[in-house]
Amino acid sequence: MFLAYWVHDLSPFIVRFSENFGIRYYGVAYLMGFVGGALMLHAYARAGRSKLPSEQIADLIVGIVLGVLLGGRLGYFLFYGSDLLIHDPSVIFRVWEGGMASHGGFIGVALVLVWFSRRNKIPFLHLGDLIASIASLGLLFGRVANFINGELWGMPSRVAWAVVFPSSPKPLMPRHPSQLYEAALEGVLLFGLMQWRFWRTGVTRRQPGRLAGEYLVAYSVARAIGELFREPDAGLILGLSRGTFYSIFLVTAGVGLILFTPQVPDVKPTDSKPS
Question: What is the spatial distance between Cα 176 and Cα 238, in angstroms, rounded to a whole number?
């Protein structure tokens, strides 16, 4: 039955030094996301579209790294694997076994932005817009790394491009490469949309916080679509996959930002004549 389908045989390591130690695609994906985000923030500063000075970008990126890693890791065990943590607390340190939750990463980044905003006197909503415009870059690389790792596989399927993942539940069967669907939706599509909104409209100037709200709503929709093809990570909640259920809270926050953040009136320069 599998002769017509590709059996996933990619190694999670770029360079392997021992059984569980080496340079992994997953780690490089995170690095590329953070470096790419920093380069985008520098481009914003050079173009005069950011209130974040170039000399403070490195500090913000370091904070976001901590927010993503700690929030994503803790969020995974809170949202998906609390039973694992209860039975074996040391599992939280075994990062090579995987286990990150994007919703936990969102919470971690939000807390970092609150702290950074207060510390550096930069409007929180403006920082939120900046990060929303680049966040999907990291998601793109991360989802591709998920595929390389052969994890977070999709539902069983007979589509021509289905993949057999050896680590999926037995009996083995072809499955949707849902990681790549999510890379396209959460990564490529949302990154393009946010960049278009950032550069081609005045939304970040007229209504700070709206772009972040739009991103939260758009991400939730993209995530829900991806979840239709993805094997659930854990038990359903109210008949929904956990990824879809947790996204409801992101939609609520996003709609709140869109509807209730104040608009800043455009101030047009007036001609002044010498008296």
Answer: 24
Q: What angle do CA 58, 142, 79 make, to 5 degrees?
A: 100
CA angle 164, 170, 176 (to 5 degrees): 35
In whole angstroms, give the CA distance from residue 175 to residue 156: 4
AA identity, residue 193: L
184 located within any domain: yes
Instruction: Supply the Cα-derived Rg of the chain in whole angstroms.
Output: 21
As for how many domains the chain has, the answer is 1
> Token pair of 226, please?
């991806």
Q: Give per-residue pLDDT as tens, 132-191.
A: 999 999 999 999 999 999 999 999 999 999 999 999 999 999 999 999 999 999 999 999
Print the domain residue range for 171: 2-260
**267 found inside a domain:** no
Cα 122 versus chain centre, distance = 23
